Amino acid sequence: MGGRQRPSAGLNIRVAVAQPTTVLGDLSGNVAAHAAAVDSAAADLVVFPEMSLSGYAMDAQAVDPEDPRLLPLMAACRRTGAIALAGAPVHTGGGGRGIGVLAVSGVGVTVAYIKMSLAEEEARHFEPGRGPASLEVRGLRVGIGVCKDTRIDHHLDRTAALGIDLYVAGLVHAPDELAEFDVRARRIATAYDLPVAFAGFAGPTGGGFARTCGGSGVWDCAGTVVRQLGSEPGAVASVEL
Description:
The protein has 5 helices and 12 strands. By secondary structure, the protein is of the alpha/beta class.
């Protein structure tokens, strides 16, 4: 996306990537882990992995943005002034479920995005999102993706066309797929002149993933990694862009 107009020099954002311990089906416990990550990150934006609130399971129940079990995460966002992007199955307009990203602030929860690019098994259980999405954080426009989206040109081109200043995504990958994070982040950063933040699962999460790679990180516009976590569950990294 050559020639993208840069935001003014005074617009900075502290972005965190988190890989909380997730227990399949334990929404209350997972919310508590997310809230702890938000508190420790002290960031403007905290990005979590794909389906981080539920665990990566094809039969995971959709999470209602009005569910009172989300209140502790809202409280953490209120304390810190952060917006958290947490992964969860969500209800779609067609009566099915999509793999969603919930935008959680101190005042409420909304469905910010539904994954457009479903894997083969996912497509048997979920409906794809209908289009790209972005949200504004501290005057900057943040484009959102989920896992497979990060390697699909159709999704990336349409998201970049929204005039975004940062691209973020939650992912889940096996330990031997860690190198994909760097490959995809470098490609997005250099092709669209954007910093990139990826949050990857660490520890077991279901869906055939007895182990995951972790590897959450932030890359600058040149595709250089600024900071990247290891495979330990519960880790958080925060970077000012």
